[in-house]
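User: Show me a protein chain along with its predicted structure.
Assistant: Here is one chain, sequence first, then C-alpha cells.
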Amino acid sequence: MNTHPYLRAFLAGILVPTLVLPLMLTGFIVLRLWLQISAPIERALVFPMALVPGLWGLWNMFWIGSHVRTHLSVGPHGAILPLLMLPLGTLAATHLGVLELGSAHAIWFGSLYIPYGLIALGWAAAMAAYYLVWKYVVGFLNRTLGIA
C-alpha cells in the first residue's frame, strides 16, 4: 500500500499559514476600512497569501525527503525558511513598487521608513517564531500523520 508521505507532509506544512493568513487579512481589512489607513496594502498581501502556504508545504516535503540524510530536526529546519523568504519577499516587494531600498533604511509604501537594524531584529524574531511553530505545531502534525 502506498501511504503518500509527501502528500501528507505537504498538507501538514500548509495548515499553519492557511489558518493564520486569513486572520492577518482580517487585521489588514480593519486597518484599511475602519481605521482609514491609506496605505496600498493590497499589493503587500499578494506574496504571503499566494506563496507562503505552498512554500511551507514544499519545505515540509523537503524535510521529509532530506531528514534521513541530514538528521536535522524539524525546528531548526523550519527556522531556516525565513532565510529564503526574506530575499524572495524583498524581490517581490521591490518589483511590485511596495518597497524601496535606501542606504540606511527601507521605505514601505513610499511613507514608512524602517531602519535596517530593526529589519534584522524582526528577521531574528521571525526565525525564533518559525523554530517554535515548526518544532511544536508542524512536528506534532508530522507525528500525527505518521511521517516524522
